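Morning. Coffee machine broken again, so started the prediction first thing and wrote up yesterday's gels while waiting. Chain of 117 residues, entered below exactly as on the submission form.
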Amino acid sequence: MRKAAGIVAAIILLGMLAAGGAAPKNEAQTRTLTGQVTDKADVPIAGAVVYLQNTRTQAVKTYITGEKGDYRFSSLSPNVDYQVRAEYQGHKSDTKTLSSFDSRSNAVLHLKINMAK
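Came back before lunch.
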């Protein structure tokens, strides 16, 4: 009887250890934000500076757009809101928000800069 109780206890212990090492299924690891910076006529703007601000820590990351006006921020926390905006030659886009309620692992936000201002 003691031997059977020891085996059952060992099985329960192993099950608990195995379950404790696994990440919860609903926990997203990270997310990525991509997009394109264009002018009012949808022409891509190369060399624009895109600012990404973590609203919790106020930390700012920057990205300089490529030839097609594209930008990319990876390894973002799914539990934080981010604000993103772009600037080019003194002109600014509106600020957009990537919300923590947005569950997409690959979010896309396009930014427009009105060069006529």
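The chain has one domain: 31-113. Going to sketch it on the whiteboard this afternoon.
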